[in-house]
Structures are given as structure tokens and as C-alpha cells.
Amino acid sequence: MTDPEIYLMRHGKKVGPYTLGAVKAMLATKSISSHDSAWYEGLEGWMPVASLPLLAEQAKSERKPLTVIRTKSETSPVPKLVSTRVARITAQHKMISGEHHLRRRSDILGPLFAILGIVILIAGFFYVRNHWLRATWNDEYSQALQSATDENKLVFIYFTRSRTCGWCKKLDSETFDQPEFRGYAAKNLVMLKVDLDWPRYTSSEIQELDKRFQVDSVPLVVILSSQGEMLARFGYKEGGPSVWINELRNFKQ
Q: Residue 172 CA to chain centroid, in angstroms?
């Protein structure tokens, strides 16, 4: 009689089919529990693996006297228990289990690599952005003044609060972050940004600038000559890059 195809219910999913020998091997290696549900054609419904009539029938048929092998050096009987079929089924089950582990790993590694890629992209974006901002704005007054003297340019000091000042953010997006203004500034200005929301701007140098230029509100833009003489000061000015560029052209070195 041909063994029926046995299906198992694992973690709420129907898996299989397996041979009777494969089911016995999985029970022996504890890959499945005797309480796991099983079904094969002929049963009225699912039942625990340990209660399968097919297992009980085969257990009765396999109760045969043990074959006793005696050797010259041994006086005690050695039961002949080697079953190549069970060994082959066990090896097959191990291979299947290995494939399942590989699939689980791939299911986990795929999303992990995707998340890692997103993190790298975000980090790269902020690195490039910060590098670009550092290349555009100076953050040391003495260095900015020296560069203005060497290059014969105006000093453009921008007092801002990037975290708490809505008008500062508006001025940045409308004017200072625009390519038209940045192109003009690169040729004619030495840009110094003093962000009062950052802890580093509590230094004595910045406090001296705050006192000297009477920074009572932000945004505030102060224009200096290359020798450090104050030429003008502005608050928020709408109209975009062209308005600011036309205003700055009035000041010549």
C-alpha cells in the first residue's frame, strides 16, 4: 500500500505533503511537536500528529523480534537498528530546514539593506548640504574680515536664529539660498553667518559683535567695508535676490 501524502499545520499555514517516514523523522528530531495538527486523505479532519491512525498501525507492524548479531569478541547481543530509509529522510528534512532558514534570512536581510541604503542617502545629503553651506558662509569674524581685505570685497554679516525665527527661514528660502544671490555673493561678498540659536555663538567675539551692531532683533544684515567700517544695516527685505543685489550694488569698494 502506498503511503498517503501527509500535510501539517505549522504556524497557521498548511505545509507539505510529507511521507510517513518524513513525519516520523521530524518527530524524532523534534522539528515538529506531537501536538501539531496533521491530515491525510481518508481522515475526517485535522488531528494531532501523535494520534494519526497511520502511525499507530505502522508501529504495530514494526514490532518484530530484534536480530541478534554476535561477534568473536562480543558476548552481548547488538540489535540491528540501522535504517537507511530513515537516515535518508532525516537528511532530506535537514536540507529542507536549511532552505527555510535561508529564506528567513533573505526575508530579514532584504529590508535591513533597504533601510541601510536610505540611511546612507540621508547622511550623504546632509553631508553635502553642510559642506555646501560651509563653503558659502564663514563663521569667524576675524577670518571674514581678513578675506574681505585680501579679496577687496564687502563683508556681509547675517544675524539669524535658524530654529526659532520664522522671518529668518523665509529670508533664507526666498533670497540667500537662491542660486542668483549665491552667484553674486561668490564674486562680490565675504559672507558671515551668526546663528544665535547655536551654542557656539556664545563666545566673547560674537558677544562683542552683538554689542557693537546692536542686534536687538533678527533677521539682521550688516554690510561692512573691507576695513570693517559699517556701511548699512537691513532687516527683512522682501522681493528675492534681485532686490538685495540691486541694494548691494550701491556699495563699492
A: 30
Dist CA 47 CA 49 (whole Å): 6
pLDDT confidence bin for 133, thresholds 50/70/90: very low
The rounded Cα 50 to chain-centroid distance in angstroms is 46
| CA 245 – CA 218 distance, rounded (Å) | 20
Amino acid at 48: P
Cis (ω within 30 of 0) for the bond into 111? no
8 A C-beta contact, residue 155 and residue 228 = yes
Place of cell 535658524: 162
Q: Quick one: how far is CA 244 from the chain centroid?
A: 41
Which residues touch 78 (CB under 8 Å, ≥6 apart)? 68, 69
* Beta pairing partners, 78: 69
- Strand 78-79 to strand 154-160: parallel, antiparallel, or no bridges (unpaired)? unpaired
Give the model's pLDDT for residue 128.
45
Label the pairing between strands 78-79 and 189-195.
unpaired
